[in-house]
Amino acid sequence: MDTDWEQVRSDFPVLQQVVNEESLVYLDNAATSQKPMTVLQSINQFYLHDNANVHRGIHTLAQRATEQYEAVRDQVRQFINATTANEIIFTKGTTDSLNLVASTYGQFIQAGDEIILTIMEHHSNLIAWQQLALQKHATLKYINLTKEQDLDLKDAAQKITDKTKIVAIAHASNVLGVVNPIKTITKLAHQHGAVVVCDGAQAVAHLPVDVQDLDVDFYAFSGHKMLAPTGIGVLYGKQALLKKMPPYQYGGEMISVVNQYDSTWAELPYKFEAGTPNIAGVIGLGKAIDYLNHIEMTNIWRHEQELVQYIFPKLLADPTLTIYGPPSVTKHTGVIAFNLHSLHPHDVATALDQDGVAVRAGHHCAQPLMNALDLKATVRMSLSFYNNWADLDNFLAALKDTKEFFNHELI
Ligand SMILES: *Cc1c(COP(=O)(O)O)cnc(C)c1O
Asked: Given phi > 0 = left and psi -120 to 50 = alpha, else beta, which region is 137?
């Protein structure tokens, strides 16, 4: 497909602004994505014309709201190729989805069981497991990195054993920019009878995801990193596992019969959706998926890779920069973490912002990874398909300005 990428970019109103007297260069997409006009309009449209609570109402507006809400569930199913819409649970986001799995599937964990994480996990896919392990007297183990700062598959093969019950792993790292070999991990985990919980927060908006092909048991992601609003996310789970799991939260919507002293639960997926959901968020998520599908995920991946191929070698060749993650352009998503000489990442990010460039600086919710790399923090630029070549050139120019500004400290 021949995509008009400048047309695509013009669909995002927020990008068309001046920040500190320069055109905004938004390179903080790993923190949150911007939203196209169609998503913004769909939320407005819902509140202007259709607003009602879902599932409970007989009246026309309630039916309209319910139809739209449930149609998105099937859209999500198609988008990640789940077998049935019952496997799609709406949550608040990746963090909520992962906490759901840890606190419900986690109840099956016993003393002496092992939970395997990777050292590159975001705190979202780490603390819930760490606390579960502490409560259940289970053992937590981390798969380490290779010298090239990629996932060490040899270490994975040693650590995943018959004692392993859960392997929790990011599909794509929010710091190192690597895409993990999830199929290899699921195969290994399943040989030992363990389930795989995959954190897809940095993957779904950037590459095609097929949960059946990956054969993951759970897959979590956030709407706001894939063009949808904040406060909406998804947990995919294999139906047989979801059926076995106890509810996450109690309240309206998730019940079948409530007596004074006991209750029974609704069928999937409602068992896991207590209370009034984020209806407008779900509708926005549906429009975001329409938008991504229209461009096509394979096309988005290819385009982002072209942008990476332009910028990554330039950054890698710059002797004042230290780049994290594998030093190979073919192993990098549009997430590039770096440090500029010995400057504090916050100073670098502040200087870049003076030129209208938005990047992130900090530990990126990955303190164990920072410790493993013997770092406190990094700067991180992160791309989306709506970034263009001018953004990358402006970023390079801003980096040059930053170096000149701090020149006395670099000598
Ligand atoms: C952003 C992110 C999360 C957390 O997502 P929330 O939307 O804040 O819940 C988890 N894992 C990774 C890899 C992320 O990038």
From this structure: left
Which ligand 1 atom sits nearest the alpha carbon of residue 94? 9
Q: How far is the CA of 406 from the centre of ligand 1 (A)?
A: 32
Angle between helix axes 297-316 and 389-405 (nearest 10 degrees) is: 30
Pocket test for ligand 1, best of 29, 94, 226 (most atoms within 8 A of CB): 94
Whether the Cβ atoms of residue 323 and residue 336 lie closer than 8 Å to each other: yes
Q: What pTM value is reported for the model?
A: 0.98
Ligand 1 centroid to Cα of residue 222, in Å, is: 7
Quick one: tokens of 225?
């990193």
Residue ranges covered by each domain of the chain: 5-27+297-405, 40-294
- The CATH architecture that domain 40-294 belongs to is 3-Layer(aba) Sandwich (3.40)
Ligand 1: centre distance to CA 171 (Å): 11
Beta bridge partners of 132: none
DSSP E strands: which ranges in 62-186? Answer: 88-91, 114-118, 139-143, 164-170
Chain-centroid distance of CA 24 in Å reads 24
Closest C-alpha residue for ligand 1 atom 14: 201
Per-residue pLDDT of the chain (411 residues; tens, 9 = 90+): 689 999 999 999 999 999 999 999 999 999 999 999 999 999 999 999 999 999 878 999 999 999 999 999 999 999 999 999 999 999 999 999 999 999 999 999 999 999 999 999 999 999 999 999 999 999 999 999 999 999 999 999 999 999 999 999 999 999 999 999 999 999 999 999 999 999 999 999 999 999 999 999 999 999 999 999 999 999 999 999 999 999 999 999 999 999 999 999 999 999 999 999 999 999 999 999 999 999 999 999 999 999 999 999 999 999 999 999 999 999 999 999 999 998 999 999 999 999 999 999 999 999 999 999 999 999 999 999 999 999 999 999 999 999 999 985 554
Q: How far apart are CA 378 and CA 358, in angstroms?
A: 14
CATH class of 5-27+297-405: alpha beta
Q: What is the number of the ligand 1 atom nearest to the C-alpha of 96? A: 9
From the list 365, 379, 381, 383, the catalytic residue is: 365
Tell me if residue 198 is catalytic. Answer: no
